[in-house]
Amino acid sequence: MRFLDLENCPDGEIAQCGTFDLIVVGGGAAGLTIVRELLGQGLRIALVESGGFEQTERHEDLNAVEVSGDLLDPRLQNARRAFHGPQLKFWNEDTQRFGVRCRVLGGSTEGWAGKVAPFDEVDFETREWIADSGWPLARADLMPYLDRAAEHLDLGPLIADRGFWASAKIPEPGPIGRLQSFHPFFWQFARSRSHLTDVMRLGADFRSLRDSDVVVFLNATATSISVADQRVTGISVTPSLTGGKVFGLSAPHVVLSGGAIENARLLLVAKRQLGSVLGDAHDVIGRYLTDHPSVEIGSFKAEHRDAAAKILGFYPLQRNLRIYMYSHGLALRPERQRKLRLPNMAVFAVTQISEADPLVALARLGRGKSKNVIADLGLVLGNLHLVVTTLGRKLVNYRKIPLRLRRLIADAAVKIDANFVARDYQARGRGRKIDGLTIRLIGEQPPRPNNRVELSERCDRHGIPLARVCWSSDGELRAAIVRFAHLLSEDFAAAGLEGFELAPEVAGDPGRLLIHDMAHTAGTTRMGSDPKTSVVDVDCQLHDVAELYVAGASVFPTSGHANPTLMILALAIRLADHLRPRIAAARLEALTRDAPGAGERPLILVTGGTGNIGTEVVASLLAKGYRVRSTFRRRLPGTAGVDWVQVDFADPDLPQARLSALVDGVDGIINLAASLSDVGEMQVANVTTLSRLAEAARAAGIRYFCQASSIVVYGSPRTKLVDENSPVIDVNAPIEKQYFAENYMRHYARTKVLGEVLLRSFADVMRIDLCRIAVAQPPGFLDRSFQWPRARRLFSLYRNSHFIASRDVARALVHLTERALTTAGVGVEVYNVSDVNSPTYADHYRAAGRPTGFYLPVILDLLKGVVIGRTLQPRHPIGWFRVSGAKLQATGFTLGGQTDGSLAPSAITAPEARADPTA
């Protein structure tokens, strides 16, 4: 991953980036998810973010909007300040008089509460009492993407209805079961994977990823969109803080993911610049702006507060050794919505932390701000158990404690008392005692064309017109909210949930309601099939501009009552799935224009040609003048002059005819395709499909087959030096007693041995080289160990991990292939492709002049063998043995050395190898 800050990036470095496959404008939830979904597949992606790693006031200035309608009411703006202000560092209602935007990598997830939920089925329906309602998709169409989105957000099962009680094995509270117009609704919270007392911040999560094909432009504000022949060709950007220069970025696919206001604003600017080229003959861009109207509709009396808070609070659900936290609220039943012709609405409880909380008192004492020292001291001493729990908050974020243990502590806290954890987060560890319990409505705003984003006559410092926002809550919506509130009050009373009182504004004149936005802005580039009422089609592509897409809540036709982030991620994942084959087709079309035809040089098939070793093998063959056909699975190729074919060797239903076509006209095969990490795929990719490929090769009369095996076939050997005659793993005996490794590696070793066995049965008709390859890595791999945390170095520094440069492996395989093609004969030969003098981590540290410090002895690996194999038989762990490559060198092959692809030295910023093992 390359991060280029436009504020201090040389012009030449930007020019060197060339043309991208995809540009994503906006590094918020939608944009980051699209990029994450496409990582590791060889796509050249530019992510354009207007902010940096941190928010500043100068970035906040760019969020300014003009407003009209209800937003001109000072009382409403005061309510917005009270609601949004405490969560955000730089936001203010004078700049952002509507919505919440954070110009920073991660977008609004830098300031959100982490609350998510799936949309209801009714949200997707065309409802005759909600004008312009209805999605071109059903909820069932999106469920697979919602499940994948839940994984991104580290959520539990997506159970939002009454089924939660059974799943959590918690009895439903009696009053809830007696409600007639409402049913339970559950939200979840996306918790950070590292900072366990915080919600997930997608920007920080994204920065930990690695992909050398992705360039992230920071402080880069998009100023215009380029279109030619009704197809997008790129965008222009300018430095966010200083402006002045304008840079063009080119790509055949562009996704706008800047949020509902900025997506509409950029399209409206483009419409002004391009005229009819952008389409929008019906003036739809920017219209149908919605947000979730929010209003406090009532509260519970003090004597009933604790009972209600417990019922309408937080609950744990355990699944697969994890504890997830769910927030319980109430939603209007669909049948009641239909009967009463109401939009979809829900309520949740909000607690106020008491000034009499012992942690609040402790803070006052610590700051010397206590007005009654004796009273505050007594409060602290009388509640020492609550004060001590603040140490637990610090404990779960103490980075020297292993993450698994910290997560176990955090999950246990949720299991014991989810409400306690929720209040601790709400008060940021500064208090938990509640002093009030209010009920807040979050509702669906029916889409209205007059609620919209337009362009102002004023411009920002870059000369881009500001957005002008018109957003109002009409009388029909206000009446619906009042009807809903009274219905809830009646249902509470009838069900026995006592002490609820409606707020005076709800009980009185609906016109006095202060309904403000929830910062869930949506709808300005809505999805649909009719260009008269929508901007993008069902694939989120603009109706009139090919390959220009929009992501985020701006494509929502309606937005229900659920917080939007889960749906934003689901649609982003769906869009990534749509883009992937389109980008692949365009790339392959360009690469295969010069694919090898008939010629004098042999045609070599290289499977897994975009992997770590495969890329080097293809390059080596091309350099020697061979014609090359190569396969890939996920990672797209970038080498021209090759006949590229996409084949999934892990697909159990791969047609034999596909393999027959693959080997047609081929003179030799170098098979690198394999599955390394997915136990479920190993048998298919490493054994079944390998056998079928060999059958196809025999049928086609191919005389040479080079198989990439692995030194793992030796398991944990009995001798310190391993050569080709050393015994391999006996697959008919317990492997754990022969190979002291993780379960997935034992499975991998087993399938590699089986692959060798089955290929030997073809030795009567072709020459087969079984190449047992050591740990192949690109230049700079060992250098990156300098950046490891101390704990990892303690366990790894002494080990010999049998490293060999990927380029040396490729040279060896091509060397053996050339040797076989020029000599007649059949049979099997086995070669170790290894470097007996490969350095340990400690060797590399010492060579670089760095201290190794203390490291743990080999005895730990011996103990590991005892634990895994439950045996004391003498075998060498990974740190003790070496693999001889003498037989390969006897054929005339020599290792390349530092000038030809060795592991080190090199710049430690070299991209990390993340090759697709079945590429």
TrEMBL record:
Cofactor(s) required, per the database record: FAD
Gene Ontology molecular functions: oxidoreductase activity, acting on CH-OH group of donors
UniProt keyword annotations, A-Z: FAD, Flavoprotein, Oxidoreductase
Chain ranges of the Glucose-methanol-choline oxidoreductase C-terminal domain: 447-572
Key word Oxidoreductase present: yes
PANTHER family (UniProt xref): PYRANOSE 2-OXIDASE
Family stated for the protein in its record: Belongs to the GMC oxidoreductase family.
Name of the protein in its database record: Choline dehydrogenase
